[in-house]
Amino acid sequence: MFDLSGRSALVTGAGQNAGAGIARALAAQGASVVVNDLVAERAKTVSDEITASGGRAVPIAFDVTDPDAVRDGVGQARAEFGRHIDILVHNAGIPADFGQGQFRTLDPARWRGPVEINLFGAMHCLSAVLDEMCEAGWGRIVQISSGSARTGSDLGLSLYGAAKSGVEGFIRHISQEVGPFGVTVNTLALGLQTNAAGDATAAIAARIPTRRLGTPEDVGAAVVYLASAEASWMTGQTLNLNGGSVTT
């Protein structure tokens, strides 16, 4: 069950945190994994870890906000693995300027960063892989999102939440367009993860029903299911992975 042998996967933003956990989990199930990151050294570190553990991985650094770079990276992956990308996990989502702050205090010049990486980044990546998935009659798209897409807060996340809300809507529509071709498209909305730090984080974690933050391993396991053959009837959905902090 959940065997991904013979499949190739591209995970964006996979050089650290949840993205690294996703790449490791997919490789452990037999997929050949492209470890993408904006920082080449991070991508190589995770790729080397996977290879040392007996998996197959290649580091390919590119910026998801650059459509030409995305297509070049996908082409490089095709050459490395000898096949098209079967599984895309668009995890990259936090730009250098996160745009955090109360909206009234934010210079408009800071508005674009979260939208470029989350919404346009997803568009660039999906555009680069969907044709070949549809032609092959099989494909998996997993978009990583956040609870902030649907739950408001006063933590200065309006730009990030707006970008995640936008990409969730995009994903729902794409699922309807490509479903007849054997391609599923889903969103995994994460709660607070272990890469966050600080007293406020500890206080929030204490209020989570499971009494802990999420881990890269938690995220990787959920993505493996969505990427598997067994998830062929799951599409157009947003799944919450948050330890019960928000229920639906």
Instruction: Estimate what percentage of residues fall within beta strands.
Output: 15-25%
> How much is the average pLDDT?
94
Helix content: 40-55%
Number of strands: 7
Count up the helices: 7
Q: Report how far the terminal alpha carbons are from each other.
A: 28 Å
Question: What is the domain tally?
Answer: 1
Task: Supply Rg.
Answer: 17 Å
SSE order, as H and E? Answer: EHEHEHEHEHEHHE
Q: CATH H level: which superfamily?
A: NAD(P)-binding Rossmann-like Domain
Strand arrangement in the largest pleated sheet: 3-2-1-4-5-6-7
Q: Biggest sheet, open or closed, and with what strands and sense?
A: 7 strands, parallel
Going by CATH, the architecture would be 3-Layer(aba) Sandwich
Estimate the global geometry from the Cα principal axes: globular
Pairing-aware structural class of the strands and helices? alpha/beta
CATH topology: Rossmann fold
Output the CATH class name. Alpha Beta
Features:
248 residues; alpha/beta; Rossmann fold; 7-stranded parallel sheet; 7 helices; 7 strands; globular; NAD(P)-bd_dom_sf; SDR_fam; SDR; oxidoreductase activity; oxidoreductase
Detailed description of the structure:
The protein has 248 residues and is α/β, with parallel strands linked by helices. It contains seven helices and seven strands. A seven-stranded parallel β-sheet has the order 3-2-1-4-5-6-7, with helices on both faces. Pfam families: adh_short_C2 (PF13561). This is Short-chain dehydrogenase. Belongs to the short-chain dehydrogenases/reductases (SDR) family.
